[in-house]
Design brief:
Three copies of one chain form a homotrimer. With 267 residues, chain A is an alpha/beta fold. Chain A is built from eleven helices and nine strands. In chain A, helix 4 links the parallel strand 4 (67-71) and strand 5.
Chain lengths: 267, 267, 267
Amino acid sequence: MSEPVTLPVSIVAWELKRLRKLNPLVHLLTNEVVQEITANVLLAAGASPAMIVAEEEASDFAAIASAVLINVGTLYPARETAMRQAVLAANAAGVPWTLDPVAAGVLEYRSAFCRELLELQPAAIRGNPSEIRALAGFSDAGRGVDSTSGSNEALDAAQQLARRTGAIVAVTGEIDYITDGEQTWATPWGHPIMTRVVGTGCALSALVAAFTAGAAKRLDAVAAACALAGICGQRAQAASKGPGSFKAALLDALYLLTPEELLEEKI
Amino acid sequence: MSEPVTLPVSIVAWELKRLRKLNPLVHLLTNEVVQEITANVLLAAGASPAMIVAEEEASDFAAIASAVLINVGTLYPARETAMRQAVLAANAAGVPWTLDPVAAGVLEYRSAFCRELLELQPAAIRGNPSEIRALAGFSDAGRGVDSTSGSNEALDAAQQLARRTGAIVAVTGEIDYITDGEQTWATPWGHPIMTRVVGTGCALSALVAAFTAGAAKRLDAVAAACALAGICGQRAQAASKGPGSFKAALLDALYLLTPEELLEEKI
Amino acid sequence: MSEPVTLPVSIVAWELKRLRKLNPLVHLLTNEVVQEITANVLLAAGASPAMIVAEEEASDFAAIASAVLINVGTLYPARETAMRQAVLAANAAGVPWTLDPVAAGVLEYRSAFCRELLELQPAAIRGNPSEIRALAGFSDAGRGVDSTSGSNEALDAAQQLARRTGAIVAVTGEIDYITDGEQTWATPWGHPIMTRVVGTGCALSALVAAFTAGAAKRLDAVAAACALAGICGQRAQAASKGPGSFKAALLDALYLLTPEELLEEKI
């Protein structure tokens, strides 16, 4: 198991080019609070979001989507059923699905559902340090969606979780670590202003899902999603005064950033 | 049946003035993703949105509203029941209701519900070409909310659907066509950036519903809603850098545009 | 019972400093439309929002939160059950909870639920004049979330409601009145543009809830929340062109305003 290495921007450029060519249709089963920003982040970056939430439709749509996201932020029983059906249909159709285990470890209802989902072969898991530690079985208690520990403290948990589930695990904070349990990329572009805008983490999970679609090397694809959010976040921070203007600037940056700019190392 | 004719801006000006004087109360039963932008578009333009979603209240409120919108984007059974009750109450009270058939033709659950609603005398239907073709019974398959054909290819379907249901049908894209089955207006102000901001189409359907309230000539009213969105979208596009700044600029433009400006042909 | 007195900004400064030090975890059970702006207002101001909505989790989370908000804007039975459980758990744990009685008096289902909640010792109630008059039992009829009377006409109702329930009652408009039934603060910083952005009132109720956490003098805390929204709203209005840019500017202003600026009377 090797030490974390900073992700080369050439990989981000290559994966971003691939994403925009593919324009993947991402089936989002996410929480009530962040649906608009999540859809807008995908549209800006170059993917197509679709929220199909009913038990009557979730299976059929997951099977024709390019990727699926499950985010348990505002879980309740009817949505839980639709999520389970979407995951099973995605697996049957070979569609990769990503888990965002919001507040896992804090409340038992969602924690139990997340443990169940871990057995169903997620392609990727994106969480904050508290959530990843909780999923890995470390004793830890978070505080809602806010993490109470840093991402480096959770690296060991992320690696264990990746080896156990087969998923790429991304644990995000000021530095993100993305691991398959053996190799680990670091993406050092996080900024604290991100924590003052609701949904930036949840939307990143949707980007992770989008990048898993058709990925040749899933570890690189997930890391590229994290890097893209971080790089655009830094641009947006430089162009804004506070969290309100930051959000608009983040969407603009995701839309405007080109693979060519990344390759010219203008970042 | 006459050829499409570009809508004169004098009609947009007259209808906008009428909307702002009336300040219609619009009962919105729309999808989970776009509720905030939909409400903000109506508030900016000069209408009053209200989301009343429970079966316990939907009938009572639809009957006192000025107009009702039904958007099936994130349909599920409890919401479906509330929508059906709102439509029946609206019809009984003479309140016009508008249908946005999101992703009709892609998934059978919502397609069946849309077919049922078509029998209940919608005042207007606003959709993308794939959705309108599906409702009209043309064999076609969309891709979630994104259309796979252009609006001119769907004009024939829109005209047939209008004649069959009695609704004004608006099929929107870079050029919008608005038809009662005989006369057809074209509004040529669409811009591709609109497709990178979630909810612009759904919010346009809410504007359509708002303009149907108290309309003397419903065809003109629906066309004016489409034109207003397009004209403000062009202004917003000119004032913004990407989809994040575009959304704020669109709301500002809807708020700032006056009937007088339109009449002076400053657009 | 004394006449309303304008709240000194020194109290706003002191309460804002206290809020940011405490960074309260606020459990939000609010309506579907405004969840994102509500969360963003709290994050910008210095509190931590969390939406935990299922019956399976609402009690447990309310008991560990610093404050709870109940907003009945898009009430339906499952959410009503979760709200009732959260209120009971909050009361058992000594956690203050705040009521936003959206459209009370207009529709009987939500009005009955609000009357039930009034018996469960709310710490604070924030509403528009029509809503406060309806809760106080005055004959009045609103129009959805828009008020049909001014805040000064509702002052008597607010004072009666405060004495009857023991809650601090805030009735908001161009001038806000905040009362415990004996003493009344006025905060004169409201601006009509606020009414063109959905969720500004609902987000203010969430700020009220945040300020009740750990408050030594609850009347001052609730008044400070109203003043903070008004002062930042005035700054945002000066920095924006319409409701789209206003919303971003409001979040920026909430993030950037410091207690020190307030004390230097730069407002």
